[in-house]
Amino acid sequence: MNPFFEAYDTPFEVPPFDKIKNEHFAPAVREGIVQKEKEVDAIVNNPEAPTFANTVEALEYSGETLSKVSRVFSNLNSANTNDELQAIAKELAPEISKHSDNINLNEKLFARVKTIWDSKDDLGLNAEQHMLLEKMYKSFVRNGANLNEADKEKLREINSKLSSLTLQFGQNLLAETNAYQLWIDDEADLSGLPQELVTTASADAKAAGKEGQWLFTLQNPSIMPFLQYADNRELRKQIWEAYKNRADQGNEYDNKEGLIETANLRREKAQLLGYQTHADYVLEESMAKNAANVYTLLNQLWTPALAKAKVERDEMQAMINSSGESFELEPWDWRYYEEKLRQQKFELDEQAIKPYFALDKVQEGVFMVVKNLFGLTFELIPNIPTYHPDAKAYEVKEADGTHVGVLYMDFHPRASKRGGAWMTSYRSQKTENGERKAPIISIVCNFSRPSGNAPALLTFDEVTTFFHEFGHALHGLLSNVQYQSLAGTSVPRDFVELPSQIMENWATEPEVMKQYAIHYETGEVIPDELIEKLTKSGTFGQGFGTTEYLAASLLDLDYHTQTEPITEDATTFENESVAEMGLIDEIIPRYRSTYFQHIFSGGYSSGYYSYIWSGVLDTDAFQAFKETELFNAEKALAFRKEILERGGTDDPMKMYVNFRGAEPTIDALLKKRGLDEASLSVTK
After folding, report:
1. Residue 224 belongs to a domain
2. CA distances from 497 to 1, 494, 643, 646 (A)
3. If you ran DSSP here, which 8-state letter would residue 57 be given?
4. Lowest CB count within 10 Å: 32, 154, 291, 651, which one?
5. Residues 6+ apart with CB under 8 A from 534
6. Which phi and psi angles does 398 have, rounded to 5°?
7. How far is the C-alpha of 139 from the C-alpha of 543, rounded, in Å?
8. In the beta sheet, which residues pair with residue 320?
9. Which residues is 216 bridged to in the sheet?
10. Do the beta carbons of residue 498 and residue 621 sit within 8 Å?
């Protein structure tokens, strides 16, 4: 009675979460592997000559059971995990790695694919078929198909180790994040904190059996406002030190040795495959093409960003000095004094803004933007299986009522969910028998929960995060391609952030904000005065924000452009990298090595720069709307047809030019972040 072995008898064929139990996963994965290997054997032993249909398409369509169970398992392991799931993941990781290698290193299978590749120009393939063939052929080559037997065996060992190491990194980080608790029993130590945060901390303490105290954690909705508002400097330092030392404490969850081994194994694998570095291997398939191009972009931004960060630092130090204090600004002081500086410069208190950003109203605003741009509507689906009570499912429809897909949304933090925000899928879109098979998409966030009598209220940063992840969701939902492996977000890392980041732009537009920024108590629309303050402060803090991001991007590249084994420990390597880039002491990289999940557990190795690369694209692309009208139907249709619907079926820059008419320039990004010469001269 394993639900993965049957067709899903659920609305829209979503996974039957109410029937799926932990004990179903391992047998379903193993059976899925057996089925896929049988399907591959049938392709390999087909007596007919290799054709696109009997080899390329047959391989594309294989492994349905394995794909079905793997998506559910990996998604639950990120969004609603437990000790048993984590143990199963560790147990299965080497088996899944071995299975992947069995296919990628299958000589007869590759020979059939290569036969088709060599004759591709004579087959009359359409553009999407050609792209599927190209990606499949390159995937075999990039996964070792041309290696000799000894090197193939070495590659298998490396892949197996890497699968376990990356899994362990994420599990260690989750354990470390959940382990820390800052308990406060003296009300005086709450000085400066917003009432909403205090109420939540009190409720969390009560739930933990300590009524009358207050509990703060390393979850973003807890630590970030604490650092921003807590007057008690010593407590700010304490929680900051805990945050920056996650998985770096010499205990069973320490990630230092594992991440160095991971970086060295990646380099070894790349060199085995004929590349100098892991970055060379990864970036070959990106828009950037090579590390030199990435370094050029990052350094082009680094100089003005660091200059602005130093101005911000000096302004905050002056504020400290003028208050009669004699200490030097430290990293745990930055957010606190930045907030005071924001209030001083713009008379803008983030706590005065949050009542206008109730989660349900922001959601209505997102839905409104998407309806105005693309005609989509969203209808809550009652009585549908979900993996957690927090997760809600919506049917997405075209303006004419045609079914587009299903969207799950899961907003609040919990111990079973990893940090951050992400979009994923339980089923990617594909075409079956000439009909579009609709996708099942999910966005997962860690927004503050409702507290007291107030609904969940978002910071403006969380508002833009919601719009961002919804952009990813649209990329998955509106996909309209033939082959699942080319659908939706199956594009280069430095292109995948374009649909997400362009959506952030609508969040900040006054015309849009007035549709969703409604005071949860009074029903008042956000006043023009507050919008003006938000707009004027738009580039405030961008020195810090851009610099800490760029520092993490450079650290990522430094790990992955090594041509020789890294012999230093992770702390030494990171310190040398940071010193080389010239980062000031008051700022650390957005992610230190031991909790840099994006690159050591999340698939962004050599790719964390992607957000800023896509930032060049999204700011340039949004100008197409700003130059005409915010909801320009023609531009929206072009963006949908040329970007959102096409997945990975064409070269990204070609798709972008088809939409915009020209390649992007960096100018719009610099201006948006206040890093252009005009903005910097004003700052000085």
Report:
1. yes
2. 40, 7, 12, 15
3. I
4. 651
5. 348, 353, 460, 508, 513
6. -70, 170
7. 40
8. none
9. 182
10. yes
Alpha-carbon distance of 458 to 353, in angstroms, equals: 9
Domain membership flag for residue 425? yes
Give the range of the structural domain holding residue 635, as residue numbers without chain letter. 355-536+610-683
Return the structure tokens found at 272.
């085995």
Domain count, the chain: 3
- Which residue(s) pair with 378 in the sheet? 396
The torsion angles phi and psi of 211, rounded to 5 degrees, stand at -60, 140
pLDDT digits 0-9 by tens, 181-219: 999 999 999 999 999 999 999 999 999 999 999 999 999
CATH number of the structural domain spanning residue 118: 1.20.1050.40
CB burial of 505-521 (b: ≥16 within 10 Å; e: otherwise) equals bbbbbeebbebbbbebe
For residue 276, the SS3 value is: coil
- What are the structure tokens assigned to 110, written together? 């590759």
Q: Indicate whether 321 belongs to any domain.
A: no
Q: Can you tell me the distance from the alpha carbon of 258 to that of 243, in angstroms, rounded to the nearest whole number? A: 19
Q: What is the mean pLDDT of residues 503-525?
A: 97
Q: Mark which of 100, 122, 146 sits at the end of a domain.
A: 146
Whole-number Å distance between alpha carbons of 206 and 200: 10
Active-site amino acid positions: 469
Contacts of 354 (CB under 8 A, 6+ apart): 194, 196, 457, 458, 459
Maximum separation of any 2 CA atoms in the chain, in Å: 86
Last residue of a domain, one of 228, 244, 260: 244
Sheet strands (E) in 525-604: none
**What is the pTM assigned to this prediction?**
0.96
Query: Residue 353 is which amino acid?
Result: I
Nearest alpha carbon to residue 67 among 437, 598, 397, 491: 437
Q: Give one DSSP letter per residue of 377-442, joined into a string.
A: EEEE-TT---SSTT-EEEEEE-TT--EEEEEEEE-S--TTS-SS-EEEEEE--EEETTEEE--EEE
Helices 331-346 and 291-322 pack at an angle, to 10 degrees, of: 70
pLDDT of residue 350: 84
pLDDT in tens, 125-177: 999 999 999 999 999 999 999 999 999 999 999 999 999 999 999 999 999 99
Residues 186 and 120 in one domain: no
Residue-wise pLDDT for 70-127, tens only, equals 999 999 999 999 999 999 999 999 999 999 999 999 999 999 999 999 999 999 999 9
